[in-house]
Design a protein that fits this description.
Layout: H1 4-11, H2 14-25, H3 31-35, H4 42-54, E1 58-63, E2 66-71, H5 74-84, E3 105-114, H6 118-126, H7 128-131, E4 139-141, E5 149-154, E6 157-168, E7 172-179, H8 183-186, E8 190-200, E9 203-214, H9 225-238, H10 245-248, H11 258-266
Antiparallel strand pairs: 1-2, 3-9, 4-5, 5-6, 6-7, 7-8, 8-9
Amino acid sequence: MVAVDDVFKALADPTRRSLLDELFREDAQTLSALERRLPMTRFGVMKHLKQLEEAGLVVTRRRGREKLHFLNAVPIRLIHDRWVSKYAEPWVATLSDIKSTLEGTMEKIYEIYIKTTPERLWQAITDPDIRSKYNFGGRHISDWTPGSRYEMRAGDMLLGEGENVEVDPPHRLVQTMVALWGEDVKSEGTSRITWEIEQVEDSCRLTVTHDQLREGANDQLYGGWPMILSGLKTYLETGELLTTPGSLMYTNQGATDGARWRSSTEGQK
């Protein structure tokens, strides 16, 4: 499990910060691509990347014969929420423009360890009341069966919708998503979100993959994930709520009548 000290140690080195800057500028890069951007040997770059992986700041995925490196901003967000937000106004946090290109689409990967059980983590993802506590105040409402529809709502406001493609509690959830919270995101079309839960001793490793995003997609679609996952971890481990936009943005819209929504959808069957 990643410790805060490991994150601080990884960030203390200027070369490792340069690697993170490169992945911030362009995500999903190979070792060879990163090596060309730094004045050091391939072995040196590999050594620094390994330390970043151990600190949870970089995650890797294989695509055919290539090993791609992704920036994982969640540990940095956790440091912000623990050490920075209490000294600054929570609303100064901004969503960064992190871009990557992979066969004409973008893919973002986020990984976090949470001290909880798979069952409790699954409940926090699928229970609309719990979800609203860390996911911009929005409730995700569905019967959570394969092929079923879900809605993201805050009061009477429809924030988004999609289909539950794969539902394997408490291990894996694959969903399509269409964002509807603003005119600037409605034209983005459908993307895909995959939640993967793996128990690691007394904790769970949660990996969220947001892919099938168009190249250059609006960063509102994916930029909030570090705040959402930080809020999820804080809630499950402490029972407390964060005061970041990721937890509060649509809270004042009020709660949706989930029973009314379910009865209306059942009437359509």
